[in-house]
Amino acid sequence: MNARTEPSEAEPGATARPPLVRELLLVVGLFLVYKFGRQLVTGHTTEAYRNADRVWDWERTLHLPGEGSVQSLLLHGDTLAHLANTYYATVHFPATVAFLVWLYLRRPARYLWARRVLAGLTGAALVLHLVFPLAPPRMLAAAGLVDTAKVYGPSVYGPPQTDSLSNQFAAMPSLHFGWALMVAIGLIVATRSRWRWLWLLHPLVTLAVIVGTANHYWMDAIVVTALLGVVLAVVRPLTSPRGTLVPLRSRHRTATTARQAQEKLAPAESEENVLVGAGR
After folding, report:
1. Rounded CA gap, 84 and 211, in Å?
2. What average pLDDT is seen over the chain?
3. Cis amide leading into 173 (omega within 30)
4. Distance CA 66, CA 110 (A)
5. 205 — pLDDT class (breaks 50, 70, 90)
6. What contacts 146, CB < 8 A, 6 or more positions away?
7. pLDDT for residue 242 is more than 50
8. Which of 34, 203, 243, 276 could cross-link with 180 by S-S, CB 3.0 to 4.6 Å?
């Protein structure tokens, strides 16, 4: 997001933005709904562990690489494991907020699209959390993985039995990876810099972190990628017939012009009917 970053296409009227207070209330409201909605899965411990065994078996059936192969890279030293835990705890939410703020200020038309995609993805993830509670691999004995946050710190979770601030049995899908992937896609679409593809490093690093710290399975990332693909197919940016973005102000002006044309046309039709009647 440097000074060399340019819009992917001309966006006349791009200074028009949705009302700030409304957007803040909407984003905060959606986050709270998701945060408290996850708590509904709390208490489904037995089902969460049973699903964890299933996911572990599915991954072995599909011949996916073991999560331990990634974790072993982090366990070469305390520093690397600590950095991975810090990334997991501190980058996820601030990076997504920064992405939305930047789009709101610099690419308002793209902001609406990205916000809708993230809302749709988060809503779909919440539904899956409710119907498929899942214990993370750090809690699965069969995985033989280390809880790196507990051993090396920092940790955002307390003991599962007493942790009332988060739901640790909502591993699938991984919104850490889903949001990171959407941030990269959004920035690639919204900018023209030849370096913009480097934004893909964010989801790639996030994937290595969530798997290496044993907070998620490979399947968690695969499922959220599929969900994001579906949401992107459904939620598309509004475009003009030429395929360019229709900015907010232009869409408002177009709708207003159409209404004014209809209002002018109605009296003209009435006068025409009067003249026809007089001729008879």
Report:
1. 10
2. 81
3. yes
4. 38
5. very high
6. 71, 75, 138, 214
7. no
8. 203
